[in-house]
Amino acid sequence: MSGRTPNIVEVLMSFIGILRKQARHCSEAGVLAISDGTPRRAAKLAAVVGTLLVVINQWEAVTGAGSMDWLKVALTYCVPYLVSTYTSVSKDMHLLREAEMARQSVHEEAQKTQVRQGTL
Fold it and tell me: Could you tell me the CA-to-CA distances from 33 to 22, 26, 28, 45, 61 in Å, in that order?
């Protein structure tokens, strides 16, 4: 290290680079959340898990002994939907990162081979 402290422009440029990277990741995650069957799978899981949780948490209302809290019912379905979507997107993002690293590794190995053979 040179021991030099970065100036404000360098710090801001670094910060902007980090924000751009995070924005790109958020954009990719958003696309994955609404594509490739993710919403359908999440809705199926939410229907099953949500129904079980409604029966457990609103048993008195289901049996007629109490009143149904519709906000809680809606949230009871939203939570498993969001958890399922998050899990799916997280897995897909991980697989995309692994594929990119593998592609980069193959590219680097091809370059090394070309250098060794004198073709680059």
Answer: 16, 10, 9, 15, 33
CB atoms within 10 A of CB 33: 17
Q: Helix %, strand %, coil % for the chain, to 5?
A: 80, 0, 20
First to last CA, the chain: 32
pTM listed for this prediction? 0.72
Q: List the chain pLDDT tens, one digit each, 120 residues.
A: 556 787 888 888 888 988 888 888 899 999 999 998 999 999 999 999 999 999 999 999 999 999 999 999 999 999 999 999 999 999 999 999 999 999 999 999 989 888 888 765
Q: What is the b/e burial string over 64-96, where b = at least 16 CB atoms within 10 angstroms of the residue's CB?
A: eeeeeeeeebeebbeebbeebbeebbeebeeee
